[in-house]
Amino acid sequence: MKANLINPKDLVFLDEVEYIIRLAELGEDTLVSLKTCLLFSTIDGDAWLLDIETNQALCLCWGGKRQPFKIVEDYETFFVQYDAEFSIVGEDFLVNSDNPIVGNSAAISDYPVHEIEQFSKMMRQRSVC
Q: What is d(CA 70, CA 46) in angstroms, rounded to the nearest whole number?
């Protein structure tokens, strides 16, 4: 799995969302961190946006098929309309989603849970300092 760091001055949030969707459509696994958010794509064609602080999630791509979503961005901030909550239990990514394609409750075992946990831990440590 690739991990990318982005210079905040060059950040266009929607560009990063489109980037991770394209990678999911190509079946590439990548992880991108943006402030308290984490974007990742998988070889199975899934892509997600996670808010690590609130455990909210948004499915951007499922099985290589782009999903509808609402993200609004201006030069100072962005707004995401999340449709799910996530947690990690052991090796499983658990999601409770309003997206009918994902299903109300799903346990996914081939997601980068260790990387998600590492990022979450790093973000919690930063907020304590």
A: 17
**What DSSP line would sit under 28-55, residue for residue?**
--EEEEETTEEEEE-TTS-EEEEETTTT
Residue 107 to residue 91: CA distance in whole angstroms: 10
**Confidence at residue 105, expressed as pLDDT on a 0 to 100 scale:** 81
Burial class (CB in 10 A: 0-12, 13-18, 19+), 49: buried
Number of domains into which the chain is organized: 1
In which domain, by residue range, is 36 found? 2-128
- In this prediction, the residues of the chain whose per-residue pLDDT falls under 50 are 2-8, 128-129
How many CB atoms neighbour CB 34 within 10 A? 17
pLDDT recorded at residue 36: 81
